């Protein structure tokens, strides 16, 4: 593998591990910069292999496993976010002193405009798109992506935009060292990806890395873990679903209705938001705090959130029929997201919950009190349905379903006027579907057929 020999007199050498969308974006970026590049993937036929070989036939590729010799003869390994850094070959390379980074670290070293960085166990994509729409409404040029949509390295443009707006996952943050975001937020934290992290604290510590640097910290005052990360001497803007303090963002009551507010200044009645649920009220407040840190005009921000209709598969209203609302929250792939959706809809009537799938070694017991308070029946699907069934209170109806169509039909039989049917699985989808998007689409199609 002489073409990526270490410490070349001519070119720094990079070994990319993982050839999906992110790995391909890294290859394009590094080849364009003139570096020596090679790629490995544990899969025999990684998704971007054909594209890579068409675009860069000169790039050396190995599939079907990791070769430690390659890994220890390069200068830098670029790890795709889906690759577990605990793999013994990667641990060996790190122990040998090889630099290991990811695409976001690579992006951070080359970004030519301020970065707005957004993470959290839940709500990332909603807040990312909200703040992007606010910035566009304010006349700013932005590039938006990261964990959502376009890989970060493909966003870097000449001339530079006003802002890069990045959604970042914990997997992406694992390998970040030099991201000094202009403004950043951890929306919330709840246990997730426990098949990747040894402890809940390890997962939280990775999320907290987004606040490294000197930029503005946007803090969820209602999340005790996130709020504990406040740093003396750093500029901060907080948000809360309670009455705001110190000119921060929150809710105030006026004229018998709830308003989004900054300090004592009411901004917009909550009922003028087009997205449902308390969690989306929190998302809107987080976006307002981020936008304020970016010096966006309040009028533009309020116009944008009034017009914001939400993202598919995130507590999205599919249909309202005969007094029943059907919500697609297929993106709820963890317990925290499911809890947020249930609590967000709780004020609008009892819930028939469709849940289950691939459990990711999560502890589902946190669901019990919320199911007890707000859910009348749980329709269970997927591989780990029984794990959820085990935590459903006795008075809540438990219904088993063979597939999504069956789940929708069984939910329709038990739901009553004024109630909500909520697909919020609290699990990954890969036991039955290609991803959460397909799961949501199958649900929505089943609902449409049911009410046609």
Number of helices: 16
Q: Please list the strands of the largest sheet in the order they lie side by side.
A: 7-8-6-9-10-11
Shape: globular
Count the beta strands: 20
Radius of gyration: 23 Å
| CATH class wording of the largest domain | Alpha Beta
The amount of helix comes to 25-40%
Tell me the number of structural domains.
3
The class by helix and strand makeup works out as alpha/beta
Give me the CATH architecture of the largest domain, please. Answer: 3-Layer(aba) Sandwich
What descriptors fit this protein?
single chain, 452 residues, alpha/beta, Rossmann fold, UDP-N-acetylmuramoyl-L-alanine:D-glutamate ligase, Protein-Tyrosine Phosphatase, Chain A, 3 domains, 6-stranded parallel beta sheet, 6-stranded mixed beta sheet, 16 helices, 20 strands, 21% strand, disordered N terminus
General description of the model:
Helices cover 33% and strands 21% of the residues. The chain is an alpha/beta fold and 452 residues long. The chain has three domains: 100 residues, Rossmann fold (3-Layer(aba) Sandwich), CATH 3.40.50; 202 residues, UDP-N-acetylmuramoyl-L-alanine:D-glutamate ligase (3-Layer(aba) Sandwich), CATH 3.40.1190.10; 136 residues, Alpha-Beta Complex (Protein-Tyrosine Phosphatase, Chain A), CATH 3.90.190. Strands 7-8-6-9-10-11 form a six-stranded parallel beta sheet. A six-stranded mixed beta sheet has the order 15-16-20-17-18-19, with helices on both faces. Strands 3-2-1-4-5 form a five-stranded parallel beta sheet. Strand 4, helix 4 and strand 5 form a beta-alpha-beta unit. The N terminus is likely disordered.
